[in-house]
Amino acid sequence: MAEEKGTASFAASEEALHAEASEIAGYDDFGDPSYLEGLRALLAALDEAKNLSDLGRMILRRQITTSLATRLRCEQRLKEHPEVVDLPVERPIFITGLVRTGSTALHYLMGRDPGMQVLEYWLSAEPQPRPPVSEWADHPDYKAAAANLDFLYNTTPDLMAVHEMKAEWPEECGHILAQSFTDDRFECSASLPGYCEWYHHTPHPGAYRRHRQMIQLVGSTSPDMRWLIKYPVHLRQLPALFDAYPDACIVQTHRDPRTVLASYTSFLARIRRMHEVEVDEALIAREQLESWGVAADDGVAWRKEHGDGQFYDLHFADFMADPVGSVKRIYAHFDQTLSAEGETALRAWEAEHPQGKHGGHRYQHRDFGVSEAQILDRFEGYLDYFDMRPDAAG
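The chain above was modelled as a monomer; its predicted structure follows.
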């Protein structure tokens, strides 16, 4: 396609991207037009990017058309199931916090509890009423999700040690937020300062209203089960999250931001090698220092204004020392019962998935172009609020 060539303008392709998505999905109603603000900010930023490879441009263009096509299909499903938007989502438990704080391990562990429902990877990619588990293996959307993950790990095998995913496992909310072009996957893929400036400093209430609709759609076959939802990015949009989920229960995960930044820079360098001509780890570190510094500040500001009553704080060292015990304390705080069957399932998962199962993810602070002093200075307010100065951080 001409639009996939390295010289094509993304912004000038807006109409063509929509037309292609409509052809893929077979529908033409994109729903609430508020998504266009994020899409246009992204397209403009991609046109300004000087370091994208031709492969990177092609991958990102396909991500955009995929998100648009998924949006179309989901809009059609909402028309077919209009009753879902009235279904309750009572006191959902959200896991959020800085990246690389153990939130994925916690999510996977808690997700083994048969008393909770989660957003499975394949249903995050293609939201729809969750079918019986016995039907998943033969479902075309499940097969497509599994094939996409196989391709990802075959092309970048070292990612398995950093973030293992499977089609049937719990997944973050990135696919859903990408339908509104309000997801950090785009800044993860390439240096896009224009998009980041818009993304970090713009409220996203429309994206979170749609998020709730997608959760209602997926959970419509189990409307009375409590939800467990996880995404570090939610820390950046607490006002929009609480607007959509006023009774949300938040588990905020914590870790020394020096380790967070080193680990995340290493992770993003792997991702960006698929999209950029040259990967600048020092630039990634500077960008993410500011991105997550803003997120940390926003989280503290929310809690100072609204209080800590809907939050439970979990520090990385405490979770690693006693994973199942940590879950029990979370449940006690948020009035959730862990049955004997649930505890057995959690302990079996813990035994089968020890830390470093697929190899270690090694990194050192000195490798990343941002000093420890700079990190501590940027996160000063966060560290002070949570009593995590260096002698106590873990």
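The beta strands are 93-97, 116-118, 226-230, 249-254, 311-315.
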